[in-house]
């Protein structure tokens, strides 16, 4: 991830980089669940589910694969637009989280990995959660992840957006 980000500036991200479905989710904002989980309101499932803890609830509700069906399949042409979408969505949602909760406790995780039917297509997910010091982190030993590129983001990593 660091190599990709070093090659390509993401300084000029806007909401136009976010696919329409994800833009709608961002605009619906954030909510608390009855367990105290911080979740994107537009992603709350209709059916009630039970979760082991707040981390599982947040990651289950807030995690989504980024829209990529309209992107080229060649990794060299796909990586930058996919990253732009993910980072724009992540920072926009982190900005909304700060507005809603009055703090910067929500983290975003962007994961790039090979997927598709034959594991030969670059795909990405974006997940939001908080960290409880009494619970294991969402991704343990993040520096040594082998099967994908991972970015853990706070709002401070991308500056404040309007």
Can you put this structure into words, describing what you see?
The chain has 162 residues and is of the alpha+beta class. The chain contains four helices and six strands; from the N terminus they run H-H-E-E-H-E-H-E-E-E. The strands form two sheets. The protein has a four-stranded antiparallel sheet. A hairpin with a 5-residue loop joins strand 4 and strand 5. Helix 2 runs parallel beside helix 4 (75-101).
In short:
Helix content is 31%, strand content 19%.
Number of H/I helices: 4
Proportion in β-strands: 15-25%
For the largest beta-sheet, the strand count, sense and barrel status come to:
4 strands, antiparallel
**Spatial extent as radius of gyration:** 15 Å
Ends: how far apart? 26 Å
The rough form would be described as globular
| Helix-strand string | HHEEHEHEEE
Query: Which runs of at least 5 residues are low in confidence (pLDDT < 50)?
Result: none
Helix content: 25-40%
Q: For this entry, what is the oligomeric state of its chains?
A: single chain
Total strands: the figure is 6
Taking strands numbered 1, 2, ... along the chain, how are they ordered across the largest sheet?
A: 3-5-4-6
Structural class, from helix and strand content?
Answer: alpha+beta
Average pLDDT works out at 90
